[in-house]
Design a protein that fits this description.
six-stranded mixed β-sheet
């Protein structure tokens, strides 16, 4: 999964990798200001960052959205008093960006750098490989000058060789005097991209600090491959993964996140529509996306209550807590029939019956609420010991007198989506 990180973390990640791998020191000065910083006043900020009083500053929200300049959310060439006033005026201020409304909670502060040239650099992962794009006309009007952006594709397993970098810069009309520095920088950024399992690094713009003869990243977007967390413990030790712009986790989502953090398995829950009548509990990240897509494709996206997945062979107690939380949400709305889809593909190594044990106990715990919500449960699963698991589910339905229908791998994985919709609409 592609995960966005804040500009503050992205710049520190890139700067550390460049210094470590290329010996290129960006002389990075950067600060993050939020409620966690302590009192937002001149005295406290100067205590934390003495350089605030030594150089003109740039201040902007660090909230995972772009086009901050075009939305008048960037303060340039400011002194510390102006910076504090800007942050206080904007902190917790509600703004709409890209059709999404949220509150500003984090700001990034850096030295203001006078410059003439603005460059554009982007590395992004595509199906065919890593696409590196460069232009000498970066900045707010990059889209209007897109014809001047030059690109090269690095195929999987290949290296981004020096001659390819030089060719890319030459095609973009880089000044000859700047070419050696930019060649080292572009190569180093790609190396940082690979080392940190990034899926996107987009600098728009970066410039050259002529007084230090070093590149300066003025604005950057960074995304990483969330599934690489297991091997990036050191490189990502300082990185925070915030919610996307405008989204705030509710209590149940935070609880499942805390379970996920403590578990060696994967437990995910996002509430999409608390008043929805179609809820999913799916084994496997890929399968969970397929189920959600199928609900939307069948025109029932407005009734989809959640996105949820469990995988990596969670313990019985973990599955129980996960299922009980999800079931409590699913049965909260009792104005019409509710369908719960317990689905998944064919497991490779997970004992299906064992994972169902925790789910079965959770279903027993909310029996009365399932009845009140007129709920029906549809189960589709395959893999080791799946027949025993399905039998246990059937016996559960008979024991607690809740309609539970089970299907094995002979049934199409998403067929239960149709059955769930039919139950909500007709009661059949």
């Amino acid at each position: 999964a592609r995960k966005k990180i804040r500009e503050f973390d992205g710049k520190r990640m890139i700067a550390a990798a460049l210094k470590r791998g290329m010996g290129l020191d960006l002389l990075l000065k950067i600060a993050q200001v939020s409620d966690e910083s302590g009192p937002i006043n001149k005295e406290n900020l100067l205590k934390l960052y003495p350089w605030f009083g030594e150089v003109p500053l740039v201040v902007k929200p660090d909230m995972l959205f772009g086009k901050r300049g075009k939305n008048n959310l960037v303060l340039l060439n400011a002194n510390v008093d102006q910076a504090v006033e800007f942050i206080l005026n904007k902190m917790h201020f509600e703004v709409e960006v890209g059709g999404v409304t949220g509150k500003l909670t984090h700001f990034v502060v850096e030295p203001f750098l006078p410059h003439d040239e603005e460059y554009y650099l982007c590395v992004q992962t595509q199906r065919e490989g890593d696409l590196i794009s460069f232009s000498c006309t970066g900045g707010m009007e990059i889209e209007e000058n897109w014809d001047r952006v030059k690109s090269v594709l690095v195929s999987p397993g290949d290296e981004f060789r020096s001659e390819e970098i030089r060719s890319l810069l030459l095609s973009a009309d880089v000044a000859q005097a700047d070419a050696p520095l930019l060649e080292k920088f572009v190569g180093g950024v790609y190396q940082a991209y690979v080392e940190n399992d990034c899926t996107l690094i987009e600098m728009n713009p970066f410039a050259i600090d002529r007084s230090q003869n070093t590149p300066a990243i003025l604005d950057v977007r960074v995304e990483v491959d969330g599934y690489a967390h297991f091997r990036q413990a050191k490189n990502w030790s300082h990185v925070v993964f915030p919610e996307s712009w405008g989204r705030v986790k509710d209590e149940d989502e935070r609880y499942i996140s805390s379970l996920d953090e403590k578990s060696g398995a994967s437990l995910k829950l996002s509430v999409l529509n608390p008043k929805g009548h179609l809820w999913t509990m799916v084994a496997g990240g890929g399968a969970s996306v397929i189920y959600s897509d199928t609900v939307v494709d069948l025109g029932y996206g407005n009734e989809l209550g959640n996105y949820a997945e469990y995988s990596g062979n969670p313990k019985e107690q973990e599955t129980y807590l996960f299922a009980k939380t999800l079931l409590s949400l699913a049965v909260a709305n009792q104005d019409k029939r509710t369908a719960l889809l317990i689905g998944g593909g064919v497991a490779n190594f997970t004992d299906v019956a064992a994972t169902f044990t925790g789910i079965i106990q959770a279903i027993k715990d909310v029996k009365g609420k399932l009845e009140a919500a007129k709920a029906k449960i549809f189960v589709r699963r395959g893999g080791p010991n799946y027949k025993t698991g399905l039998r246990l589910m059937e016996e559960l339905g008979e024991e607690i007198e809740i309609p539970i229908t089970v299907y094995g791998p002979e049934t199409s994985m998403t067929k239960i989506v149709e059955h769930g919709i039919q139950w909500i609409e007709t009661g059949v």
